[in-house]
Structures are given as C-alpha cells and as structure tokens.
Design brief:
The protein is mostly helical. Helix content is about 65%, strand content about 0%.
Amino acid sequence: MENNINNDVIPESNVNTDADSVVDSIPENAEKIESDGTTSASQNIQTTQEAAPGSAMAIISLVLGIFSLVCCCTVVPAVSAASIGLILGIISIKKNYGGRSLATAGIILCSIGLAIGAIMGIFGLIGSALTGLYNIRYNVRF
C-alpha cells in the first residue's frame, strides 16, 4: 500500500487487522449486490403473511358463535351454526393450529348460542304442544 502524502510504503505490521477480520466474516454471497439493489443473501429469505388453516378455523368458529347468538330466536340456524362452530373451535385447539384465543372465544360463544337455541327449541315444543292440546280440548279450528 502506498501513502499518498509522501509516497512511503506502510509496513504490513501497522495495518489494522480488525477491519480485515470484519471483512472476512462477511459471507461471500452477501457481498454480491444485484442490479435491483438487493443482495443474494436477502433474496433467499422468504416471508409469508398467510394465515394458517387452523387460524381460519378459529375465525370461522368465532363468526359462527356470533351468528348463533344473533339468531338465537330462530332455532334451526342458531343450533346448526353453533354446532359447526363448536366443532371447528375444538378441532383448532386440539390440533394446535393457531388462533387459540379466537378459537376459545368461538367455543364459548357457540356454547352459549347452542344453549340458548336449545332452550328456545324446548320452549317452542312445549308451547306448540300446549297450543295443540288447547285446540283439541276446546275444539278450536283454524
């Protein structure tokens, strides 16, 4: 190496070896800069933002739980949505897919919706039976 001021040659013993060790520690493929400004090392990294299938199951369970609560007065949609949501939430938790808190919330809401739907169904059957008995006893015809 030459010194630009007085053109003296710097002896090899005075060269800073810390900089050389830093340069040596860089992988060879990281030093290659492509035309788009990225290095070949950064091109090997793949990032995905897709949801896992289990978290989708947890989200569906939560949505069906909310739907079953909203439609709890209509027995058939509420009970069927709550049953499907309950199954999906349990599968999501058992298989450790992800979205555990969403699946837990879905299971709770589906359980409440299923209970309310079942109670409404029982009251509907009892009311229907009592109405039928009343109509038979007093000869009411429509």
